[in-house]
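Please check this one:

***
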Amino acid sequence: MSVLTTKCQVTIPKSVRELLDLRPGSKVEFDIADDGRVYLKAESSGRAPASRFKKIRGTLKTGMTTDQIMVLTRSGSDGE
C-alpha cells in the first residue's frame, strides 16, 4: 500500500514499475472504472520490456572454464 504525501504524490511499488517498465520521466495515465477502481496505464516506450534476468546475468563466478561447465552440465549425476 502506498501513502499519499503532503504534495498529493504516491510512490508506485517497485513490482508495478518493473512490470510496466516505468522509469523516471515515463508517462502514465489513470483511468477510473464505473465501480470506482483506478487503472494505471503506461505509455508505450517502443522498447522491449527489461529482462527479469538482467540483474543476475554474468554474476556466476565458479573459476571454471566454459568447457568444464559444459562437461559438468552434460554429464550424468556421477560426473561421467
Strands lie at 28-32, 38-42. The CA atoms of residues 28 and 42 lie 4 Å apart.
